[in-house]
Amino acid sequence: MPLDSHYQMQLLKDILSNHQTDCCGSVSECEQVERLVKSLMVNADINENIKPVLQEIYQYGQSGAGSSDLDTHITSNRQNLSQWVSDMDQFS
What we know:
mainly alpha, 75% helix, single chain
């Protein structure tokens, strides 16, 4: 059973919050971020104002999945992670 957009958004926020708090993560989490964002981007129920943020998050996930030093990638995006979660709270 697929997750609805509310739960997809919550899962995405949880992963990003964990990355921001722990300064570490896994390639599979980055791939999950990519899949969640792809699914949300095509969902008509998603607020148009959040789509640019989702695009940035997608780039973050894509870069993280291909990074040779994922922890450094996450640490260098800590401020972005916090801002993205805040933005998603505002528009969801």
